[in-house]
Predict the 3D structure of the following.
Amino acid sequence: MHYEGHVIRPPSEAGSILLQATVGCSHNKCTFCGAYKGERFKIKKDEIIMADIEYAAKHFAHIRRLFICDGDALIIPHKRLLAILTRIKKRLPQVTRVGVYANSKAIKMKTEEQLLELKQHGIGIMYMGLESGDEVTLQNIKKGATSEKMILMGKKARESGVKLSVTVLLGIAGKERSVIHAEETGRVLSAIDPEYVGALSLMLIPGTPMHNDYETGKFEMIEPDDMLRELRTMIANTDLTRGLFFANHASNYLPIKARLPKDKQSAIKSIDDALSGKIGLKPEHMRAL
């Protein structure tokens, strides 16, 4: 397989075939993210992508899921993306689900009909980074989208029938807006009503604007207990039809997996037990991105 730069995939795609169709991220301005710094976004040549599909057909014929990397592969022009999916279906018939990262800009560029067509050609899940539902925080981190746009694009993705996984970041608002961030993120998640929510804990990456702000005192990182309180408030303010709320990423202090609304109160109780010391938190040396 031909890989360039930093190849990033969601934790749930750890066992998937990783087909890199784009390099980097078309936005690449988020202040907290250092994944693609110094990398210029590009769509790889069709012949390289098709060659990798052939390689996968020979060596990964037993793997049933495939993830198209990198940062926002959904932004590939529709006809080219359809051609890639058609080749995947032909050469990797055992693949039952294809996943992609999908930011709000990429979803907006696709029509409802095109999203339906992508689903028919194998796209089974999209991963969208919300990070926060708080308008001020979204501006501060240079996300490039308002909370209203996130809601509209999240709903648009859901209406296509493709499963949607939304990522949020604990601690991203700093100390001052922690409660507002948690409440507003719950509001936006409720409006989108995705099948999956993944809550990660902010880990500052040297060289990023947010880390620089932390070093100069402009950004105040919250403590582990504050992250738990933020998570508690976020879950309390999130109403999903039958969605799974995960906070079991390696970066998190307390692993939580709850199907809302059924498990909401038990998740909140687990957080309360951790805050009272009845449940221990993950040590810092065991946390990782």
Summary: The chain is about 40% helix and 15% strand. Residues 20 and 69 are 4 Å apart (CA to CA).
